[in-house]
Amino acid sequence: MCDWAEATFGSVSAPVSLVDRAMLEMEELKEAVVAQDHAEIGKEAADVLILLYRLADQFGLDLDQEVAGKMAINRSRTWVQKGDGTGSHI
């Protein structure tokens, strides 16, 4: 993925540009969710993930390992449900 993005779009001059682009893609994802357009939800979610993988790569991070590590932390925390499918830790 990252090799393809590098070949297609060129080198990342500022990693924050990937964050900015991911935020735009998140807006598109939100629109797809509001419209309940399943095909677009999948495509937009994938766009966000591609950008996040590329961002992690810029810092020499393995996003899969980072997620596994964060899930270990999350599983050890105490959580309070907000009633909408989300929550916060204590």
From TrEMBL:
InterPro entries: DCTPP. One of its GO terms (biological process) is nucleoside triphosphate catabolic process. It holds the Pfam family MazG-like. GO terms for molecular function: nucleoside triphosphate diphosphatase activity. Keywords: Hydrolase. This is Nucleotide pyrophosphohydrolase. It comes from Thalassospira lohafexi.
